[in-house]
Amino acid sequence: MRPEQHRQGDGAGKPVARLKVGFVLSRSFTLSAFALFVDTLRLASDEQDRSGRVLADWQVIGSTRHLITSSCGVQVAPTSDFVDPTRFDYIAVVGGLLTVENPVDQQTIAFLKQADAKKVPLIGVCTGTFILAAAGLMKRHESCVSWLHYKEFRERFPDLSVRSDRLFNLDRQRGSCAGGSSSADMAALLVRKYISRDAERNALEVLQIEKARAPADIQPRRPLYDDYDDARVKAAMITMEQFVDGSMPIEKLAAMVGLSRRQLERIFIEKTGMSPAKAYNRVRMERAKSILAQSKAPLIEIALDVGFENASQFTRTFKRTFGQTPSQHRAASRAH
Question: Which of 137, 172, 207 is the last residue of a domain?
Fold first, then answer.
């Protein structure tokens, strides 16, 4: 579906796309995910931050006009009742806490199914993808969720395709994203695609975002401990992340989880296939890898952050761990 064509009054007579997005907010929705998405549209819609709805428009739609409470307690009022879904180019469902038993009501589910029947693309923002999946609207589409929610998605919807290694996904008539700042990345892609690169650039500059990330960009952080089911291993690795500069002695780490060093060594070998020292080194290298991809910090600064005395020592360890130097990894990340 192509966004409505809007004619600017600049005398050029050239129509430009006008993007319309309807937002469905769940109970206990994630405010940051919604705010970043809608503000990207707002800032792309006109010039000089006047909040004019020239090139884009948006509504918060709902079955009632009752206030909807976000997970942080801030409330948002719907601005529109459910209308013909074809008035929108996309309908974005913003999810939140997964502990809420009925995040949306049956009228909302019926509306989303109506939108699907009329071929209006649906987007799951944050855990909004869970709502679409529960309504049977993610069949034959790949879902993208946060690494934090990947396991639960697999348990709830074992027959659906899901991934947690990327920021967001646009799969034919469906979109999904991990939430957080990836909401702005997804919105920026829609702006670039349907309005212009200039509109996208304007929005990102005001939001102080240097560059929009691509759908295939890796989610910034998936803790190594998420792969292990032993509570002592998880506790130890969480502590390693808190002392990513390498300042936590293995003996003290073992004592913090109620074990001797020898017991901790044995459990780590059994559960992870590596020693605590090697796991600690891996945690530090993963943090360095993330910083390299997301910042322009000098190598020596990153080396010091993860507990190395100099850049050359850090470079050797990084290459031994990942098969490429920090500079090579940074260049490859920028190329994406």
Answer: 207
CATH code for position 307: 1.10.10.60
**Residues 141/173, Cβ–Cβ less than 8 Å:** yes
Domain-embedded: residue 13: no
Q: What is the CA radius of gyration of the chain?
A: 23
Confirm whether 2 is domain-assigned: no
Q: How many angstroms from the chain centroid is the CA of residue 109?
A: 24
Which two structure tokens, joined as six digits, stand for 225? 């401990």
- Containing 15, the helix (H) or strand (E) segment is strand 15-25
Quote the pTM value: 0.70
pLDDT tens digit sequence for 81-108 = 999 999 999 999 999 999 999 999 999 9
- Tens of pLDDT, residue by residue over 136-180, are 999 999 999 998 888 899 999 999 999 887 889 987 899 999 999
Give the residue numbers spanning the domain of 324.
222-335
Q: Is 202 helix (H, G, I), strand (E, B) or coil?
A: helix
First-to-last alpha carbon distance for the chain, in angstroms, is 27
Distance CA 184, CA 328 (A): 27
Domain count, the chain: 2
What secondary structure does DSSP assign to 120-180, as a single string? Answer: --EEEETTHHHHHHHTT--TTS-EE--TTTHHHHHHH-TTS-EE-SBSEEEETTEEEE-ST
- How far apart (Å, rounded) are the C-alpha atoms in residues 283 and 268? 14
Do 181 and 289 share a structural domain? Answer: no
